[in-house]
Protein backbone atom coordinates (compact mmCIF):
# COMPACT_ATOMS: atom_id res chain seq x y z
CA UNK A 1 0.00 0.00 0.00
CA UNK A 2 2.77 2.43 0.94
CA UNK A 3 4.60 1.84 -2.30
CA UNK A 4 1.37 2.68 -4.11
CA UNK A 5 1.16 6.00 -2.30
CA UNK A 6 4.83 6.76 -2.81
CA UNK A 7 4.16 6.32 -6.51
CA UNK A 8 1.33 8.86 -6.27
CA UNK A 9 3.56 11.37 -4.51
CA UNK A 10 6.23 11.05 -7.18
CA UNK A 11 3.54 11.46 -9.80
CA UNK A 12 2.28 14.59 -8.03
CA UNK A 13 5.79 16.06 -8.14
CA UNK A 14 5.96 15.48 -11.89
CA UNK A 15 2.45 16.83 -12.41
CA UNK A 16 3.32 19.98 -10.46
CA UNK A 17 5.88 20.78 -13.17
CA UNK A 18 3.15 20.56 -15.79
CA UNK A 19 0.47 23.13 -14.88
CA UNK A 20 -0.82 22.97 -18.46
CA UNK A 21 -2.48 19.69 -17.47
CA UNK A 22 -4.87 21.73 -15.36
CA UNK A 23 -7.82 23.68 -16.72
CA UNK A 24 -9.26 26.10 -14.17
CA UNK A 25 -12.98 26.43 -14.85
CA UNK A 26 -13.98 28.40 -11.77
CA UNK A 27 -12.12 30.16 -9.03
CA UNK A 28 -13.05 32.47 -6.16
CA UNK A 29 -10.29 34.51 -4.56
CA UNK A 30 -10.05 36.96 -1.72
CA UNK A 31 -7.49 39.54 -2.80
CA UNK A 32 -5.79 41.65 -0.16
CA UNK A 33 -5.37 44.92 -2.08
CA UNK A 34 -3.52 48.03 -0.97
CA UNK A 35 -6.49 49.35 1.03
CA UNK A 36 -9.29 46.80 0.98
CA UNK A 37 -9.97 43.17 0.38
CA UNK A 38 -11.66 42.30 -2.89
CA UNK A 39 -13.51 39.28 -4.12
CA UNK A 40 -12.39 38.16 -7.56
CA UNK A 41 -14.16 35.39 -9.45
CA UNK A 42 -13.81 33.49 -12.68
CA UNK A 43 -16.97 31.83 -13.99
CA UNK A 44 -17.63 30.66 -17.57
CA UNK A 45 -14.38 32.22 -18.79
CA UNK A 46 -15.33 35.67 -17.45
CA UNK A 47 -13.70 37.52 -14.58
CA UNK A 48 -15.41 39.80 -12.11
CA UNK A 49 -14.03 41.83 -9.22
CA UNK A 50 -15.97 43.84 -6.66
CA UNK A 51 -13.53 46.77 -6.73
CA UNK A 52 -14.48 50.19 -8.03
CA UNK A 53 -12.03 50.18 -10.93
CA UNK A 54 -13.49 46.95 -12.28
CA UNK A 55 -16.99 48.35 -11.90
CA UNK A 56 -16.04 51.39 -13.98
CA UNK A 57 -13.62 49.85 -16.49
CA UNK A 58 -14.36 46.15 -16.68
CA UNK A 59 -10.75 45.35 -15.79
CA UNK A 60 -8.54 45.95 -12.77
CA UNK A 61 -5.12 45.17 -11.33
CA UNK A 62 -6.57 42.28 -9.27
CA UNK A 63 -7.91 40.45 -12.31
CA UNK A 64 -4.75 41.19 -14.28
CA UNK A 65 -2.64 39.73 -11.48
CA UNK A 66 -4.61 36.49 -11.44
CA UNK A 67 -4.46 36.26 -15.24
CA UNK A 68 -0.70 36.50 -14.99
CA UNK A 69 -0.20 34.14 -12.05
CA UNK A 70 -2.62 31.45 -13.24
CA UNK A 71 -1.96 31.83 -17.00
CA UNK A 72 -1.00 28.23 -17.88
CA UNK A 73 -4.22 26.95 -16.28
CA UNK A 74 -6.61 29.42 -17.93
CA UNK A 75 -8.73 29.06 -21.06
CA UNK A 76 -8.16 31.45 -23.97
CA UNK A 77 -11.29 33.38 -22.89
CA UNK A 78 -10.05 33.77 -19.35
CA UNK A 79 -6.68 35.03 -20.58
CA UNK A 80 -8.24 37.75 -22.76
CA UNK A 81 -7.24 41.25 -21.72
CA UNK A 82 -10.16 43.41 -20.59
CA UNK A 83 -11.78 46.18 -22.64
CA UNK A 84 -9.56 48.92 -24.05
CA UNK A 85 -9.21 51.72 -21.55
CA UNK A 86 -7.38 54.99 -21.10
CA UNK A 87 -3.71 54.42 -21.69
CA UNK A 88 -2.38 55.98 -18.48
CA UNK A 89 -4.82 53.95 -16.38
CA UNK A 90 -3.78 50.80 -18.16
CA UNK A 91 -0.10 51.48 -17.51
CA UNK A 92 -0.70 51.96 -13.81
CA UNK A 93 -2.79 48.76 -13.63
CA UNK A 94 -0.05 46.81 -15.37
CA UNK A 95 2.56 48.14 -12.99
CA UNK A 96 0.43 47.32 -10.00
CA UNK A 97 -0.34 43.81 -11.22
CA UNK A 98 3.37 43.17 -11.85
CA UNK A 99 4.09 44.04 -8.26
CA UNK A 100 1.16 41.99 -6.99
CA UNK A 101 2.32 38.96 -8.96
CA UNK A 102 5.37 38.86 -6.69
CA UNK A 103 3.24 39.20 -3.57
CA UNK A 104 1.28 35.99 -3.70
CA UNK A 105 0.34 36.19 -0.02
CA UNK A 106 -2.16 38.85 -1.12
CA UNK A 107 -4.12 36.13 -2.87
CA UNK A 108 -6.25 33.66 -0.96
CA UNK A 109 -8.04 31.03 -3.02
CA UNK A 110 -11.37 30.23 -1.38
CA UNK A 111 -12.89 27.92 -3.95
CA UNK A 112 -12.10 26.44 -7.32
CA UNK A 113 -13.16 23.87 -9.86
CA UNK A 114 -10.61 22.43 -12.26
CA UNK A 115 -10.18 19.63 -14.77
CA UNK A 116 -6.97 17.67 -14.60
CA UNK A 117 -5.57 15.81 -17.61
CA UNK A 118 -4.02 12.72 -16.05
CA UNK A 119 -1.96 10.15 -17.93
CA UNK A 120 -4.98 7.93 -18.43
CA UNK A 121 -8.12 9.88 -17.64
CA UNK A 122 -9.38 13.36 -16.97
CA UNK A 123 -10.46 14.17 -13.44
CA UNK A 124 -12.54 16.90 -11.85
CA UNK A 125 -11.21 18.54 -8.70
CA UNK A 126 -12.92 21.01 -6.43
CA UNK A 127 -11.84 23.03 -3.44
CA UNK A 128 -14.29 24.74 -1.11
CA UNK A 129 -14.62 25.56 2.58
CA UNK A 130 -14.83 21.86 3.45
CA UNK A 131 -11.65 20.97 1.57
CA UNK A 132 -10.60 19.14 -1.60
CA UNK A 133 -12.46 16.59 -3.65
CA UNK A 134 -11.30 14.62 -6.67
CA UNK A 135 -13.34 12.10 -8.63
CA UNK A 136 -10.45 9.62 -9.02
CA UNK A 137 -10.37 6.26 -7.25
CA UNK A 138 -7.22 7.02 -5.23
CA UNK A 139 -8.95 9.98 -3.62
CA UNK A 140 -11.83 7.78 -2.51
CA UNK A 141 -9.42 5.56 -0.58
CA UNK A 142 -6.80 8.05 0.68
CA UNK A 143 -8.65 11.37 0.72
CA UNK A 144 -5.82 12.73 -1.33
CA UNK A 145 -4.31 11.88 -4.73
CA UNK A 146 -1.64 12.93 -7.21
CA UNK A 147 -4.02 15.50 -8.72
CA UNK A 148 -4.80 17.23 -5.42
CA UNK A 149 -1.15 17.07 -4.33
CA UNK A 150 0.02 18.59 -7.62
CA UNK A 151 -2.46 21.44 -7.32
CA UNK A 152 -1.45 22.00 -3.68
CA UNK A 153 2.15 22.35 -4.80
CA UNK A 154 1.36 24.70 -7.68
CA UNK A 155 -0.98 26.95 -5.72
CA UNK A 156 0.65 26.62 -2.27
CA UNK A 157 1.35 30.28 -1.46
CA UNK A 158 -2.24 31.18 -2.40
CA UNK A 159 -4.03 28.48 -0.42
CA UNK A 160 -5.52 28.92 3.05
CA UNK A 161 -3.87 26.71 5.69
CA UNK A 162 -6.68 24.15 5.65
CA UNK A 163 -6.28 23.57 1.89
CA UNK A 164 -2.54 23.01 2.25
CA UNK A 165 -3.01 20.07 4.57
CA UNK A 166 -1.91 16.74 3.15
CA UNK A 167 -5.33 15.10 3.40
CA UNK A 168 -7.11 13.04 6.04
CA UNK A 169 -4.26 10.56 6.35
CA UNK A 170 -1.61 13.19 7.10
CA UNK A 171 0.46 10.66 5.29
CA UNK A 172 2.24 12.67 2.64
CA UNK A 173 4.50 14.48 5.11
CA UNK A 174 5.29 11.22 6.76
CA UNK A 175 6.24 9.55 3.52
CA UNK A 176 8.04 12.53 2.06
CA UNK A 177 10.16 12.42 5.21
CA UNK A 178 10.82 8.75 4.62
CA UNK A 179 11.71 9.38 0.97
CA UNK A 180 14.11 12.24 1.41
ZN1 LIG B 1 -10.36 44.56 -8.73
ZN1 LIG C 1 -7.40 12.58 -8.08
**Given the C-alpha coordinates, what overall shape results?**
elongated
Radius of gyration: 18 Å
* Distinct small molecules: zinc ion
Q: How is the quaternary structure best described?
A: single chain
Termini separation comes to 19 Å
- Strand-pairing-aware structural class: alpha+beta
> What topology, given as strand order, has the largest sheet?
3-2-1-4-5-6
Q: What low-confidence regions span 5 or more consecutive residues with pLDDT below 50?
A: none
User: How many separate structural domains?
Assistant: 2
Number of strands: 6
**Count of DSSP-assigned helices:** 9
Rounded mean pLDDT is: 88
Keywords: Metal-binding, Zinc, Zinc-finger
Protein name: Zinc finger SWIM domain protein
GO molecular function, one term: zinc ion binding
Domain SWIM-type: 38-71, 125-156
